[in-house]
Structure prediction request, 350 residues.
Amino acid sequence: MQSDSQARTGLLFGFAAYGMWGLLPLYWHLLESTDATEVLAHRMTWSLPTAALVLLLLRRWSWIRPLLRQPRKLGLIFLAALVISLNWGLFIWSVAHERVLEASLGYFINPLMSIAFGVLLLRERLRPAQWTAVGIGALAVIVLTVGYGQVPWLSLSLALTFATYGLLKKRVKLDGVESFSAETAMQFLPALGFLLYLSARGDASFTTEGLGHGLLLAFTGLATALPLIFFGAAAVRLPLSTLGLLQYLAPVSMFLLGLFVFDEPMPPERWTGFLLVWAALTLLTWDALRRAQRGRAELRAGRTAERAAVRAASARGSSDQATSGGPTGYADRATPTDAPREERPETSQS
Prediction:
């Protein structure tokens, strides 16, 4: 019952995390009157006090001092902060310029980009289904390039930056809250400096467009931190296969928002490109679920064989003990010089 309860709680956290990520275009749309670079700078600036508050509530400070003694890891965190800042900026820009559909395509492509990184950088071997999915994804990019008359640079840039970020996070090996805190610490001073520069020029919108607008900018840190915290809570309660399925909730939500809320155009070539990407992702998901099911079956078979071996060893031990006449290894049998005694039941060794 405990595991079922944890799974349900994990699903709620997972839906909350990916649901919030998928609905972020609505939040950025409320700030469309502000330049994307200023919104990005506010997001980076307000994320640090949000992260500090989360660390204070969780009382998790012990990781900071050891991290400061690892310059290589600090360098990787700096690169991760740089890459995710670029990803955030592109996404905010895409909402401001009514290109949410292209942004959603980028996050649909991301798993395919991660696979390509695995082959090119980590020398991973792909299964036939994965090779097929990558090929279909490449075909989708070609179709979209022909349809648009140019390479879908926004989608590819979002996929590339997020896949690079995932690769760097894999090397850093910090959990979600710790990694978020370290990255925002790297982002804070440059972002704050940029906001002060805008304010000195009289171009800042934080105090000039009303209290509601200022609060929306201030809460960008919370809008960034909350889904990450929910994702961390889901990750410790759900298997990776379930998380892998939930990750599509965010780009699906973005796609629906772009199509029905922001009323962005969807010509036939774009539909063709999206359908090809969805076909590739369906193939990837089927392959991952099949592999996970096979792994669970092999694990169950291994446990069954192990229990059978333990029972067989126990049975052999009991048989050997009975043959030797008892746990001491000496036979309790009467001799002509022994006095008659009562028969005792033998003790079995379990």
User: Anything to note?
Assistant: The chain has 13 helices and no strands.
